[in-house]
Amino acid sequence: MIVVLEPGDMLYLPVMWYHKVSQFCIPEDEGFVLAVNYWYDMDFSGPLYPLSSFVRNSALKAQAEAEGHEV
What we know:
The N and C termini lie far apart (38 Å). The longest helix has 17 residues. The protein has 71 residues and is mostly helical.
């Protein structure tokens, strides 16, 4: 999916929404971009996020093993 924002637009990304951001500018433009992020603590212990917990724990375990730490 590609989303193009115009001046004054805002993009809301729901929790756990993986994304990549890039910018392009008109050659005569200054190319100024401002991004404001806001995070808040969420309770991931409920029934809605078991896959997120599994993926996170698996990634942390793989990272520890790759760095030579005993898991």
